[in-house]
Backbone:
């Protein structure tokens, strides 16, 4: 087993992972991965299903404590950091969950309001309300805000989850397949938001199968296979990689994404039908 | 909200059980005790059984069966739905955000339910006694308040407080033990009931011992 | 939204407030029942031994609990210092010269420290002062000077005697009735009374009087007959004439002595009647002393019994000699004793 190490020398990392290993019972999801995600850039993680992409993302976001290794997010030790430093770090990060991860017993409005209320307790309710409706209006979601997550379609949930991640105006975003289940219009709007964030210098780390997302946002691409890091470099570097495994994966993933994502699923689950 | 579900909605069950228990004690006591010329002992027995022993533990069992399992399931589901991770990602400590209100709610509900259990149990026994042997309420109250002591009240409230804390801790702990699969939720719920009931009985024994020491 | 969810706060609020209200009420009722809020006054006493005294023991005064023992400790002078509270409602009972006495109940429970009030009515003793034990030197001297109001000890003998009292009273009344009866009989015999017996006796008297008159009459008749007989013997007198063969008497008498026999018969029957009366009178006279003797004797016996019982009551020697009868609570008291 090779210990793969990838680093973008000379560029300051937003997230630094060292010798990360994660074990799920008998299955080794991550095998001694070390990686430094560059600050202010967008890094997309790719690989076949079950290779540990989401696991890596969660470890990088500090949501999943690894069995071995060290995690440093924005200069804070995510495993042993002091609560105040952690809270400050969280204030500036956002995470879009693969399966939305909305709080089921709260309305969508409350789902979006809670992070604001928690991190900015002094902010007036009217200000909070205005911010939430501003984000919801961008995605045509303001009408469903009083509902609870269980009544929504997957796409709507995903968009709300996206809005919730955006509401704190983070400078570090974790995106776990943000576009799955979302219709084309939603993806368009999401992409425009992400482009704005990228332009404002926000670091992004994402897992995606979406070709549009990749082509429009990716600065760096990280290719994984079977819990190991296969290739890590700028988009052009990776695209020109001679490693047949990397090429295969890249082609597969992007083709797959082009086939499965977007249209077909959105046709099956038209936007707002449950409303 | 936690108190609504844990406390208020458990009230009818508590009331029925308390009334029944008080009634049974009085019926049995009235048929047996006067034969020994110890009719007065009925109050002491009522206080010991309802206030000091069975009140807290029965209320705890009911609360555990109702709310403890609900909490375990709820938190387990939140883990599966990535809601816990969402809390962490937002920077909200899931322990303080989820456990503390449940802990306080269950503990407070437990204490209040214990008060209600006692009121129903002791009043219920009065009404049952009324069916067999009418006696004025003032006499009943005098006998009862003669038998009950401040230590009894302190003991029962302490017990219910500890039981409430125990229930909240055990059920949230087992809720968070769920990791990935939704099949873990019922498993953990079952485990939490087993462990919780055992702990409740052990705690009751220890507290009773402490009371008499 | 469901009613419960919408009014969750209100429902929970009512639930919580009511619960705490009930708890406070229970605590308050216990408190007022067990005197948590009343002020207690602390005093102390000294005993030779702590045996029989325990913490929490009640202090009683004429059967009422007026306080509790709070603390017992052995001082360096090997005296047992007993600290106790007196409830404020009874503080006026703790007067000067009061003493404490340890009364042990024969069965081991229900005993306690008993307060005996000083005889003089004074203000309550200042808090923290010593109330001597009745067996201590000070206590003894107080009792000896008769400064302490010691109640009659409510012991078993007393109870026994109190049970005897009604019996004695019954005997008394019986005696009185007997005396009355005797007086009645005496009065009857003296003739100065009324009632059936008296009437009988009076009637007998009257009969006797009448008899006397009758006897006197008979005497006169007999005198007349004698005179008649004497005249009959006078041949020259009226009688011979009368009795002459042609005389009317002769004719009356000339009936083969029929008249004479008639008279004789009358006299015999009169005599028999007199004998009967005499017999009756003799019987009455002989029985009266017997009845009065019997009555007199029984009265004396009762008087003696009364005296003996009085002696038993008053004699401390005999009293101590009677074994104490312990009141054993029966295990079965029956349904009428149930308290519930």
Residues:
């Amino acid at each position: 087993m090779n210990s793969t190490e990838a680093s973008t020398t000379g560029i300051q990392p937003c997230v630094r992972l060292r010798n990360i290993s994660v074990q799920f019972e008998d299955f080794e999801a991550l095998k001694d991965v070390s990686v430094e995600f560059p600050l202010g850039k967008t890094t997309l993680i790719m690989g076949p299903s079950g290779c540990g992409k989401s696991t890596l993302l969660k470890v990088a976001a500090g949501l999943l404590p690894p069995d071995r290794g060290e995690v440093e997010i924005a200069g804070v030790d995510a495993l042993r950091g002091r609560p105040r430093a952690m809270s400050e770090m969280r204030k500036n990060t956002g995470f879009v969950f693969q399966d939305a991860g909305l709080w089921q017993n709260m309305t969508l409005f409350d789902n979006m309001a809670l992070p604001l209320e928690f991190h900015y307790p002094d902010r007036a309710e009217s200000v909070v309300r205005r911010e939430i409706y501003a984000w919801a209006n961008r995605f045509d979601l303001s009408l469903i805000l009083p509902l609870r997550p269980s009544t929504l379609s997957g796409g709507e949930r995903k968009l709300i989850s996206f809005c919730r991640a955006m509401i704190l105006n983070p400078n570090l975003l974790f995106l776990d397949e943000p576009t799955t289940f979302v219709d084309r219009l939603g993806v368009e709007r999401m992409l425009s938001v992400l482009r704005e964030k990228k332009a404002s210098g926000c670091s992004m780390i994402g897992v995606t199968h979406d070709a549009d997302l990749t082509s429009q946002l990716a600065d760096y691409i990280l290719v994984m296979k079977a819990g190991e890091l296969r290739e890590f470099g700028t988009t052009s570097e990776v695209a020109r990689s001679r490693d047949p495994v990397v090429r295969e994966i890249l082609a597969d993933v992007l083709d797959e994404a082009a086939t499965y994502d977007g249209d077909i699923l959105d046709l099956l689950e038209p936007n707002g039908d449950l409303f | 909200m936690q108190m609504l579900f844990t406390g208020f909605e458990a009230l009818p069950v508590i009331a029925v059980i308390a009334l029944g228990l008080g009634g049974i004690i009085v019926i049995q006591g009235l048929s047996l005790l006067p034969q020994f010329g110890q009719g007065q002992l009925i109050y002491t027995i009522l206080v010991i059984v309802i206030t000091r022993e069975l009140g807290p533990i029965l209320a705890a069992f009911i609360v555990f069966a109702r709310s403890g399992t609900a909490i375990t399931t709820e938190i387990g589901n939140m883990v599966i739905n990535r809601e816990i991770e969402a809390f962490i990602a937002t920077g909200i400590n899931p322990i303080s955000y989820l456990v503390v209100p449940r802990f306080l709610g269950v503990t407070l509900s437990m204490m209040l339910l214990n008060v209600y259990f006692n009121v129903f149990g002791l009043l219920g026994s009065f009404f049952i006694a009324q069916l067999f042997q009418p006696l004025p309420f003032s006499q009943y109250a005098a006998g009862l308040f003669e038998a009950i002591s401040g230590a009894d009240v302190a003991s029962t409230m302490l017990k219910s407080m500890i039981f409430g804390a125990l229930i909240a801790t055990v059920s949230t702990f087992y809720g968070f033990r769920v990791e990935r699969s939704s099949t873990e939720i019922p498993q953990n719920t079952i485990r939490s009931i087993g462990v919780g009931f055992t702990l409740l009985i052990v705690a009751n024994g220890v507290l009773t011992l402490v009371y008499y020491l | 939204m469901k009613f419960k969810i919408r009014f969750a706060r209100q429902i929970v609020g009512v639930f919580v407030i009511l619960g705490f209200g009930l708890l406070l009420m229970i605590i308050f009722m216990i408190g007022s029942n067990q005197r948590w809020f009343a002020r207690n006054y602390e005093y102390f006493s000294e005993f030779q031994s702590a045996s029989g005294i325990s913490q929490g023991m009640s202090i009683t005064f004429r059967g009422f609990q007026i306080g509790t023992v709070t603390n017992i400790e052995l001082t360096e002078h090997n005296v047992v210092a007993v600290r106790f509270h007196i409830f404020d409602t009874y503080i006026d009972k703790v007067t000067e010269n009061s003493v404490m006495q340890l009364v042990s109940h024969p069965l081991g429970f229900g005993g306690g420290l008993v307060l005996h009030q000083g005889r003089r009515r004074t203000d309550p003793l200042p808090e923290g002062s010593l109330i001597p034990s009745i067996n201590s030197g000070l206590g003894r001297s107080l009792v000896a000077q008769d400064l302490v109001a010691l109640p009659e000890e409510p012991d078993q003998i007393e109870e026994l005697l109190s049970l005897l009292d009604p019996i004695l009273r019954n005997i008394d009344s019986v005696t009185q009735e007997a005396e009355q009866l005797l007086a009645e009989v005496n009065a009857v015999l003296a003739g100065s009374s009324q009632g059936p017996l008296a009437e009988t006796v009076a009637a007998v008297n009257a009969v006797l009087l009448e008899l006397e008159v009758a006897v006197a009459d008979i005497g006169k008749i007999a005198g007349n007959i004698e005179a008649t007989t004497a005249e009959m013997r006078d041949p020259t007198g009226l009688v011979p004439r009368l009795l002459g063969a042609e005389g009317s008497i002769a004719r009356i008498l000339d009936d083969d002595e029929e008249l004479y026999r008639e008279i004789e018969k009358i006299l015999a029957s009169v005599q028999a009647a007199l004998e009967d009366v005499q017999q009756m009178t003799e019987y009455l006279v002989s029985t009266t002393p017997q009845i009065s003797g019997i009555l007199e004797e029984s009265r004396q016996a009762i008087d003696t019994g009364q005296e003996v019982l009085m002696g038993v009551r008053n004699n401390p020697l005999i009293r101590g000699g009677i074994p104490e009868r312990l009141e054993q609570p029966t295990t079965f008291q029956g349904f009428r004793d149930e308290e519930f």
